UniProtKB/TrEMBL annotation:
It comes from the Eukaryota. Pathway: Cofactor biosynthesis; L-ascorbate biosynthesis. It comes from Prunus persica (Peach). Residues 53-235 form the FAD-binding PCMH-type domain. Keywords: Ascorbate biosynthesis, FAD, Flavoprotein, Oxidoreductase, Signal. Its cofactor is FAD. SUPFAM superfamilies: FAD-binding/transporter-associated domain-like (SSF56176). This is L-gulonolactone oxidase.
Length: 594
């Protein structure tokens, strides 16, 4: 029976991938703002915020022009309302976009309908767009004009205003680098103003302006971005190939890899001792090929398959079954090799290299675009599909190798403990250059993303959650990695302001442009100022705190607060088959329960 169950699980993944090889249309995501009789709620794309509390606001407005956008800010200022901006998408995991207050004096401004203008200046290789324009629409427009946007995040379901304000990025150490905000050459910001100025004004910024570097990555705290001007290059193609190989040398060769390939990345599957090196450089426009990168995880997915995979993963987690998770991880990795992770030479993948225009290779998100009721993005909250955490840590390049060495030490204690992350996408390793943005990266950096199972209930512990908590704390506390502003669990932001040398300069600009703190909220302050909330029973289970007592975990279900196995200073919630003695609580390692 056991072997049949895991075979079924593996077949689910094979069917899932095979389904995604066909151009199936998807059920589009719901809008992030939904209004009811007593007001409106803001949701992210997963349907649940980190603290699982709703973001409730009294009303939302939908400007269609820059002047209407200015009037919305003026209304908020005149009436002393807390205000935040949301687009047609909502993929930020922390509650940066939530203006809610206990008094209810708050409103949302949506840029979902502020999306009409794309002005291309071919002579000066630049494009100016409304902040609500979606990334895919922008890319298509510039490609049609014979130009290319060099940097873009891997997921295209974002607005231009949203992606630049949160530091979204692709991967490159070449040229201006992989962060989109470092390709900004102009920006318009709507900020509160005096009554004599109409309560709000438009501030147009260029690189020479003193506050430009604050506005490039502003987290929505300075005002409302209305226009973004980005640099372009003449249209080009890219040639991509993956090399799935042994992971023995990642910590020694990651820098050389980034320097050799313009759009390099690495995907590491630690439980399988495998690394997939992406060989990705631009090629001339006349190079043969019309390929596409339709990333496997962002393709439309059968709702039945998504629900089945989630149900299977929950069963394995509740049963503490490593064998099942490792079978799933192996089958998923096999499929990724077979279909080149979603690269297509034409309709399907037939071999490396895959060559195609920049606009079809730089970002993906095909699950966003249709109305078929039986397919969706795999994480759509309406279907009870995939549900996971996403941790994203940004390291100074010189420290990343030592982080990998420590993770390997942890992995080598019991490799099967890492199968849970390989069910998703392993560790995705990308590269971004040093930035002048105050809340950007002050040095060349390496970014690592990894996804892992999240329970349906906040107080349900997760099997092997101590592994991911130790990796998380290794990254953010031992090696001082910075959290990606739009991702992560709350603990990743502890003392984050100390990690940015220009943080105080950003705060000074904030005081200058928004002296009444209209664009701040308790939720954004919690993230930006790295505040730890009040500790309570179970608070460490979802990263709302770091445990210091067993009650912060789930002692009733066998999860106790323990030191890390490699990073001894870490404090993690680890399962033990027997309760610790009163003299060893918080101090033992329970090696028998690895």
């Amino acid at each position: 029976m056991h072997s049949f169950w895991w075979l079924l699980c593996a077949l689910h993944h094979v069917i899932w991938a095979a389904t995604m090889l066909i151009s199936i249309q998807a059920m589009p995501p719901e809008p992030p703002v939904r209004c009811y009789k007593n007001g409106c709620n803001l949701y992210n794309s997963y349907g649940v915020w980190g603290d699982r509390k709703d973001c409730h606001v009294q009303n939302v407005t939908y400007p269609t022009t820059e002047e209407e956008l200015r009037l919305a800010v003026a209304y908020a200022n005149q009436n002393k309302l807390k205000v935040k901006v949301v687009s047609q998408f909502s993929h930020t995991i922390p509650k940066l976009a939530c203006p809610a207050t206990s008094s209810g004096n708050s409103m949302l401004i949506s840029t979902a309908k502020y999306n009409s203008s794309i002005e291309i200046d071919a002579k000066n290789l630049a494009v100016t767009v409304d902040a609500g324009i979606g990334l895919r629409r922008l890319i298509n427009a510039v490609e049609e004009a014979g130009l290319s946007l060099v940097a873009a995040p891997y997921w295209e379901g974002v607005s231009v205003g949203g992606l630049v304000s949160t530091g979204a990025h692709g991967s490159s150490w070449w040229g201006k680098g992989g962060a989109v905000h470092d390709h900004i050459v102009g920006l318009s910001l709507i900020v509160p103003a005096k009554q004599s100025e109409g309560f709000a004004k438009i501030v147009k910024l260029e690189p020479k302006d003193q506050i430009f570097n604050a506005a490039k990555v502003s987290l929505g705290l300075l005002g409302v971005i209305s226009k973004v001007k980005l640099s372009l290059e003449p249209r080009f193609k890219r040639s991509i190939a993956y090399n799935f190989t042994d992971d023995a040398q990642i910590e020694n060769i990651y820098m050389d890899h980034a320097k050799k390939y313009e759009f390099a990345d690495i995907t590491w599957y630690p439980s399988k001792h495998t690394a997939a090196y992406r060989y990705d450089n631009r090629v001339p426009l006349n190079a043969s090929g019309d390929g596409t990168y339709d990333f496997l995880g962002f393709q439309s997915n059968s709702i039945l398959i998504s629900k089945s995979i989630r149900a299977t993963e929950k069963t394995m987690d509740n049963g503490r079954s490593l064998g099942g998770k490792c079978t799933m991880a192996a089958s998923f990795l096999g499929v990724k090799k077979l279909v080149a992770n979603g690269l297509k030479n034409g309709l399907i993948f037939i071999g490396y290299p895959v060559i195609g225009p920049q606009g079809k290779m730089q970002t993906s998100g095909s699950c966003l675009y249709s109305t078929a009721a039986d397919n969706s993005c795999a994480w759509d909250p309406r279907i009870n599909g995939l549900f996971f955490y996403e941790t994203t840590a940004i390291f100074p390049a010189s420290k990343f190798g030592d982080f990998i060495r420590d993770v390997k030490k942890l992995r080598d204690l019991k490799p099967d403990n890492f199968c849970g992350v390989d069910i998703y996408n392993g560790f995705l390793i990308r590269f971004i250059r040093a930035s002048g943005a105050y809340l950007g990266q002050p040095e060349d950096s390496v970014v690592v993303d990894f996804n892992y199972f999240r329970a349906d209930d906040a107080l349900t512990p997760r099997f092997n959650q101590d592994v991911w908590e130790e990796v998380e704390q290794l990254a953010f506390f031992k090696y001082g990695a910075k959290p990606h502003w739009a991702k992560n669990r709350n603990l990743a932001f502890l003392d984050v302001q100390k990690k940015y040398p220009n943080f105080n300069k950003f705060v000074a600009v904030k005081r200058q442009l928004d002296p009444q703190n209209l664009f701040s909220s308790e939720w954004s302050d919690e993230v930006v100022f790295g505040k730890e909330g009040e500790k309570s029973d179970g608070c460490a289970l979802e990263g709302q705190c770091i445990c210091s007592e067993d009650r912060h975990c789930s002692p009733g279900k066998g999860y106790f607060c323990k030191p890390g196995l490699v990073y001894k200073e870490a404090r993690v919630c680890r399962y033990s088959s027997s309760p610790p003695s009163p003299f060893s609580v918080g101090s033992g390692s329970d090696k028998n329960d690895l």
